[in-house]
Every structure is written in structure tokens, then in C-alpha cells.
Amino acid sequence: MSFVPGLIKQDFKEKYDQYCKLIYKIAFIHLGNKADSEEAVQEVFIKLYRNAPEFHDSEHEKAWLIRVTSNHCKNMLRSFWRKKVTQFEDLSVYFGSQKELENAQLIINLPTKYKTIIHLYYYEGYAVKEISDILKITESAVKMRLKRGREMLKMELEGDFNE
Amino acid sequence: MNNKDYKRALDQIKPDHSLREKVWQGLDNKSSFSSRIRIGTISFAAIFILSIVSLNVLPNSGMEKKDRLSKSSKMEKKSVSDEFIGFDGTKGETIKSEESLKDRNFDSNGKAKNGSALKSSAFGGLGNNAAADSARSNANTDMSIYQTGSIGMLEFEGKTYREDNDNYSYNILKLKGEKLGTTKISFQKGYKGKESFKDEPFHPNNKDLELYPDGYEIYSVKGYNPEYRIMVSGNSNGDKWGSIYNCFTEKKIATGEDVFSNIYLKGNIKSARWKTIESWRNKLEVYKNIELSTTFEDFIDALYISKPLPNDSLSNSDFDKSKILYLTMKNQIVEQIWLFPDSKFVKYQSENSYFKVEDRKFDAFYKTLK
Fold it and tell me: Nearest CA of chain B to the CA of A91: how many Å?
């Protein structure tokens, strides 16, 4: 029995290639390990194919995926059991230098509420208004979290949050 | 750190090339889902159903005649009848009694007895169901289905049932017993306004909510006392599915028997497999069969007299050495038990419950897992 009736592999491949890195990176900064991040990717794609609404355009779809990924990761992090069994991965295998590793650990150790916002702003290049729309929070909340998140990362980042 | 450093660090985080195929397989073939994915799939749906269980039918446990759940004051009482099939294949009888299940007791073979399987509150308690505790602390009391991480939780009859990650499938429906109720979308009362929930992924203003249907049905599970085990059933793309939810730690637990007798381990295991923690972490479906030998039976016996303990003494190395048993019962339900060799603890996965097993019997069995 097909879990997603009518799903064509080519269609899936295109969606996967388009969004997988985005989803995986958001998942990784939340969950901090490969196994859970892969699981999150799988869950999000399941949701995309089983439950997604009709999207107006690709940006709408992307925003939905970001929000769903972020929310899913937050819930994974609430699990006592998951915390207990997923704390052992050696992150150094992913990074070429000690500095990159330290930076990644700083990012992963950020409080959850700042992670997605920081990532969307500084990596994906979204503006504050766009982040506000994607995550369904106010612009002032986005700015505040960007500010605090940046302080926690001791970042010397550009941007006045108003673009 | 500057923004280039941020990008450089994140650029290193890339999915494996093999992930695409894994995801595709998960989408294309339900049977290829790992247990962890199965948990997440149903649980993720379940959390969106901030439900009040609305019962208009009294339950029939299915394990024995006259089974009946005690009803909360909100719920209308009504007699029902149903047939059930126990481990021995016997069918049940028409239910006429208003007797509460709390007055019912069962022995380890699923037969009613006059013992004290349910009245163990005077004994020492487990006191360490962290997931459930966490769920309670996070949940509004009006919420009937919720989730901690990817573990589904169902509040029913005033008790918290925890999703059984190994028993979510379409096939499990053959064990569906009497309907106990239906979930309805019913958001928490007492919201303090939109802003207070703006960070919550499941608050009513989150558009994800509209993606999920209500109408999950709650059933008894044939052969089990619904005080301990129920089934939630739903519909995906026209296909009905069922998911088992368990509640074994609401009551005080004196020994392993208080849990394991209610899943009827003794005499009802059809086959057994195990996998390593590495396989579990990497979601590999790599199992080894377990011979149902005297050593195995001794271990099962030892589970019944094991002592419930907090898991504080478990070390990381104990987790790293853990092995996971998958016990397939005669009715095809799979029970998952974790073994921790340093501490001689076992964990009943469904309830996040830890038990200390007699060293000699634990070691003898653990040595057979090669």
C-alpha cells in the first residue's frame, strides 16, 4: 500500500532537491545531530505530502515548510527520552576547523526561540517582516530575538533589522 | 562571530546523499518506517488535536466479560455489548454490568481474578515517568491529546496514556475493540490571549492546526484492560490506522508484575528479536532473532519480580551499551524493552519505566544477545 497515493518519484525528487538543505539545516541547528535531523526531514516531507495546504506560490510553500520544520523540532526537543539518547554525537566530524565547530556549537546551544529567526535572517536572508509572516510572530518580537540571539552569539553582524 | 562565520559553519551542515532515498522510501512504503518515524507521524498529528474526549459509549475492555471503565462525571453512562478475542482466542460476552474496571482484576494470563493487580497504591511508587510529568507540566488540563517531543499522549478517563511506538499500523486494527469515545477539536480554555501563545506551535492561531482533522476514535484493545491499554484510530487518505496507547504508571508500582502482567508477557510471546543501540539510533532495521529458551523464559520471569527505580543511576555508557528487545506477542502486538547492562536495568519503552532486574538472570540473558 502506498503511503502517499499517486506520489511520483520525480515530483518528490524536485521538491526534495529544492527544500531538503533548508529543512535539514533548520533541523540540525535545533536538534544538533544527524539522526534526529534526518528524522525531522522525513517527518516534514510526510507532512508536506499528506497534509499540506494549497500553496499560492513557491515562497508560500517554503514559508510553510520553515514553520512546520521549526515547530516539529521544538516538539522533538521536549522529549525527555530524546534528550537522553541523542546527546552523544561528535559534531567535529562535520566541521573542517575548530572555529567552525565552536561557532556551530554556539548556534546549536542558542535557546530554541532564537534559532530559527537568527537562521532565517543571517543565513536565508529573510527580512524582519518576512520572518514575522513566516513564523506568525510580531515584527517587534523578531527584532527583539534577533538582538538577543546576536548578543548570545557575540555576533558582529550587519543589519539594523529594518530592511 | 560575524555573519560570514555563521554562513560558513552552516554550510558545513549538509544532509547525506542517502537521505533522499530514505525519505522517499518512507513516503512510498509505510512498512519501511522506522519505529521512531512511526511515533512521530502519529504523534505529530495527535498533538494538533487538542481534544476533549467526548464519550457517549461505555467501554468494553475485551479481555474479560463485564469489563467496564469507570466514567467521569462528564460522561454519559450506557451499556454496550461486544465480542472480543483474547490471547486464547475465546470470545467475550454481552456487557450488561455497570461495574467499574477499577473493581476488576486480572491475572498474568489475562484472566479475571480476585487479586490486587490494580490496588497497589499502598506500595512504593515508580515516581519517575519523566515524559508524562513533562507532558502534564506543559499541558492544559482540558487538553486530551498532546505530545512531549514525538511521544503522543492521550488523557482519557483522567489518566495519561502514552503512545506505544511499536504498535502504530493499519494491521493493528484487527485488535480494535469496543468504541470508548471520539476526540473532538476543543481548544484549551483559559487562553490569556493570542500573544501569550504566539510562540506555541499549536495555538489556535497557528495555521497548521487547520491541516488536521478531528474525529479520532478511541477504542479498547481486544485482550487488554482499557485501564492500561487503548487504541486511537484515524483515517489517512482513506486508510484507517490504529495506534496503541498505554497507561501503566498512573498507579503505584511495586514490582515489574504491576506492568508486565498487564501486557501478558508470560506465555504469550510468539517470537523475539533485538537490535543494537547503534541500529536504533541510525534507524536501521537490523534485528537478530532471540531463541525462546529457558534462559529467555527465566529473564521474563525476572521481569515480573524486578524493582521499579528511577533511572538516575544510568550512565551514558550504559545507554551506549543498551540493547533493545522487540517481543512479538501472539496477537502481533510488539512490546519493546530496553536492556542496560551496567545497571541491570530494563526499560519498558511504552511507559518510560525503569526496573532493576536480578543480576544473574539479567546477565545470563544479555550474554545470549550476540
Answer: 10
Q: Which residue has the cell 559534531?
A: A91
Q: Do the chains contact at B29 and A3, CB–CB below 8 Å?
A: yes
Torsions phi, psi of A101, nearest 5? -65, -45
Q: How does DSSP classify residue B67?
A: -
Q: How many residues does chain A have?
A: 163
C-alpha cell at B22: 530514505
Chain A touched by B206 (CB under 8 Å): yes
Helix (H, G, I), strand (E, B) or coil at B247: coil
B5 at interface of A, judged by CB pairs closer than 8 A: yes
Question: B54-63, B302-311, B338-347: lowest mean pLDDT where?
Answer: B54-63
More confident residue, B92 or B252: B252
Cβ distance B239 to A2 less than 8 Å, yes or no, reads: no
Would the pLDDT of B33 be above 50? no
Kindly report the pTM of this predicted structure. 0.46
Determine the angle formed by the axes of helices A34-51 and A58-77, rounding to 10 degrees.
130
Q: How sure is the predictor about B30, in pLDDT bands with cuts at 50, 70 and 90?
A: very low
Q: With 0-12 CB in 10 A as exposed, 13-18 as middle and 19+ as buried, what is B317?
A: exposed
Q: Nine-digit cell at B158?
A: 483522567
| pLDDT confidence of residue A157 | 56
pLDDT recorded at residue A97 = 82
> Could B201 and A21 be called an inter-chain contact, meaning their C-beta atoms sit closer than 8 Å?
no
The DSSP annotation for chain A comes to --SSTT--HHHHHHHHHHHHHHHHHHHHHHH-SHHHHHHHHHHHHHHHHHH----SSHHHHHHHHHHHHHHHHHHHHT-HHHHHHS----GGGG-SSHHHHHHHHHHHTS-HHHHHHHHHHHTS---HHHHHHHHT--HHHHHHHHHHHHHHHT------S--
| Cα dihedral: B36, B40, B42, B44 (round 10) | 170
Select the highest-mean-pLDDT range: B41-50, B191-200, B211-220.
Answer: B211-220
Q: To which residue does cell 506568525 refer?
A: A136
Q: Please give the ipTM for the structure prediction.
A: 0.81
Nearest CA in chain A to B18: A38
Quote the minimal CA–CA distance from B64 to chain A in Å.
34
CB distance B201–A74 less than 8 Å? yes
Residue A96 C-alpha cell reads as 573542517
| Residue that wins the pLDDT comparison between A91 and B247 | B247
Q: Is B13 on the interface with A (CB under 8 A)?
A: yes
Angle separating helix axes A9-31 and A98-108, nearest 10 degrees: 90
Average pLDDT in the B23-39 region?
Answer: 53
HEC per residue, B253-300: CCCCHHHHCCCCCCCCEEEEEEEEHHHHHCCCCCCEEECCCHHHHHHH
Are the C-beta atoms of B322 and A78 separated by less than 8 Å? no
- The nearest CA of chain B is from the CA of A1 a distance in Å of 7
